[in-house]
Write a structure and sequence with these properties.
The complex is a heterodimer of chains A (271) and B (292).
Chain A: H1 2-36, H2 54-61, H3 63-96, H4 101-110, H5 117-131, H6 137-160, H7 166-173, H8 178-207, H9 210-215, H10 223-233, H11 238-260, H12 263-270
Chain B: H1 2-11, H2 13-58, E1 62-63, E2 66-68, H3 76-83, H4 85-118, H5 121-135, H6 139-144, H7 159-182, H8 187-195, H9 200-211, H10 213-228, H11 232-237, H12 243-253, H13 257-286
Antiparallel strand pairs in B: 1-2
Helix pairs in contact in B: 2-13, 3-13, 4-5, 4-7, 4-10, 5-7, 7-10, 8-9, 10-13, 12-13
The chains are: A mainly alpha (271), B mainly alpha (292).
Chain lengths: 271, 292
């Protein structure tokens, strides 16, 4: 009995130590990146020798980084808008679908997520070369939408599956047209889901870099692309400064999503 | 007469309601089609057609000026891919990386998801947060966080470093995929197994694992697909060449479109085979997995 108890204590301690170590491994790398952004040296070093905001000042003086920041926002907002439109309409349509169409749409929407971004980048580069879209914001937005749409789509599928469809019938019986009843009856009930879906789409676009690397030019490159090129050349703390901004933006977006719903739900939607 | 009208009146509702319901479903599926049309058109234009073009270019004759001869049919690109020892060693290394990261990611993901499932309150929120935060951070930063310059202990560069960095990239997805299924599992079943004398590790392996198999399958497929195609981690942290790095060079430096296209097609074929195998093997342990 005592040996059994002893074993259980050991198991409990090992279990806790295990997940605490993993917790540290997940969070510490990002904290290290943030810490190095406050150094004043010319090269990245951890721990930073002197704390200063030198590189933050540098960031706001740098036209290249500010341009990349603008590109990221343009592409992110474009992706969020397009993916949300496609995903919400598609998932809504699926609810009325009694043909076999729906069983084709779901895998078709999902498959791009499983294809290595390098292959997607190559494929779309060849395609956009022929269409003359190469290097434009539109080409990057379309590529990112390929990844963002599945997230919006599956978030909305799960939201619509909990919607009370009798409300829509009631609206019809009261004489509301399809558009009217969607705007006044369906949308207010699912707006949190739409909001979270759009945020996820924005974040996906903000952080994607392999497809953007293939499709952008020096005037349309996004923050991760510029960060990547800079990393290959100079290891200065500017990349850490930019990373810190990106982490803060993502945290802000996450906070908004959690306020709209809750953390557990958002986490489940991400998988 | 009255009898006749009454029978026809009582007979009327049936056909009418049948017609009405048929009309309703017709307009239902037409509405469904209308609503799904933009999504389907998008997937066709930006996904299906580009891949058809990729396939077509892979069968075009390579041209001396780099790109390709339009309108020609040739197997030269495939011959180049299959004949090259370098390409096979690059593919071998990519799949090796994919398998190692997938096994680690599923094992650790299962453990971490279980820890989240069993915890509550602030601890649970913190653990979930630790998974979501890296997920929201760009791959470039996640890779660069493992740069030897940032790791005081001096992370071993080379394959070990690449595996750790790639694991950091895919682990959050694995944890969430497994956790989302685990969260719907009934804890009482595990308790029952323990009351019947199963040890704690055994009750997890024999009761929890089979129940969360759909989540494990998703975790394995995602970890594998993304690690096989890894680009950032191997490029930044080692001198090894993976498929992604090699094909990027073919495309952007050598400008040999047909070879890049053929190699991509071969890669997609090999990956589909592996993913089908993952489904096949894991399904036997858990059963009943449906896509989406």
């Amino acid at each position: 009995m005592t040996s059994n108890l002893h074993r259980e204590t050991v198991e409990t301690v090992a279990f806790r130590a295990g997940y605490l170590a993993l917790f540290a491994l997940m969070v510490v790398p990002l904290l290290v990146v943030i810490a190095t952004s406050f150094s004043d040296g010319a090269r990245i070093a951890f721990p930073p020798e002197n704390l200063s905001l030198t590189w933050y000042v540098e960031f706001f003086d740098s036209i290249r980084w500010l341009e990349a920041f603008t590109s990221s926002i343009i592409v992110g907002v474009g992706t969020a808008a397009l993916a949300t439109l496609l995903g919400v309409l598609g998932a809504f349509g699926q609810e009325f679908d009694d043909s076999s169409l729906g069983s084709v749409v779901a895998p078709l929407v999902l498959i791009p997520l499983l294809i290595p971004p390098v292959i997607l980048g190559i494929t779309l580069l060849m395609y956009f070369n022929e269409g003359g879209l190469r290097g434009s914001y539109v080409s990057i937005i379309l590529a990112h939408t390929l990844w963002a749409t599945p997230l919006v789509y599956f978030v909305m599928r799960s939201v619509f599956s909990r919607f009370d469809w009798q409300q829509l019938d009631a609206a019809h019986d009261l004489g509301a047209g399809p558009v009217q009843s969607f705007v006044h009856v369906v949308l207010p009930n699912v707006k949190h889901g739409v909001f979270v879906g759009a945020l996820l789409a924005f974040i996906i676009s903000l952080q994607e870099f392999v497809m953007a690397l293939f499709l952008s030019t020096s005037t349309t490159q996004t923050i991760p692309v510029l960060a990547w090129t800079e990393l290959r050349q100079a290891m200065d703390p500017m990349v850490s400064v930019v990373s810190t901004f990106l982490i803060l933006i993502s945290l802000g977006a996450l906070a908004l999503a959690v306020i709209a719903t809750n953390l557990e739900w958002v986490s489940k939607q991400l998988s | 007469m009255t009898e006749a009208t009454s029978t026809s009146a009582s007979a009327l509702p049936n056909p009418i309601s049948a017609v009405r319901s048929r009309l309703a479903t017709q307009s239902g599926s037409r509405r469904a089609l209308l609503l799904m049309a933009p999504l389907i058109a998008f997937e066709l234009l930006i996904f299906v057609i580009p891949f058809a073009i990729l396939l077509r270019i892979s069968f075009a004759a390579p041209s001396s000026d780099g790109v390709y001869h339009e309108g020609t049919w040739s197997l030269e690109a495939y011959q180049q891919v299959f004949a090259s020892d370098l390409i096979w060693s690059v593919l071998g290394y990519s799949f090796f990386l994919g398998v190692v990261v997938t096994v680690l990611s599923v094992a650790i993901g299962l453990f971490y998801a279980y820890a989240i499932w069993r915890s509550s309150g602030v601890v649970k929120s913190l653990l979930l947060f630790s998974v979501v935060l890296p997920l929201l951070t760009t791959l470039v930063i996640r890779t660069y966080a493992f740069d030897p310059l940032l790791v005081p202990a001096g992370l071993v560069p080379g394959t070990a470093g690449v595996v750790v960095a790639q694991l950091y990239i895919v682990l959050p997805y694995a944890v969430l995929a497994i956790y989302s299924v685990m969260a719907t599992t009934d804890w009482h079943v595990v308790e029952a197994a323990r009351d019947l004398g199963a040890s704690r590790p055994r009750s997890v392996l024999e009761v929890v694992v089979p129940q969360v198999m759909p989540g494990i399958i998703v975790a394995a497929v995602v970890s594998f697909a993304w690690s096989v195609g890894a680009y950032a981690a191997p490029e930044l942290l080692s001198n090894s060449i993976t498929f992604a790095i090699y094909v990027e060079g073919l495309m952007l430096s050598d400008m040999s479109y047909p070879t890049a296209a053929a190699l991509s097609v071969v890669m997609l074929g090999l990956m589909s085979g592996c993913i089908a195998a993952i489904f096949g093997v894991l399904n036997r342990f858990g059963g009943d997995f449906e896509l989406a």
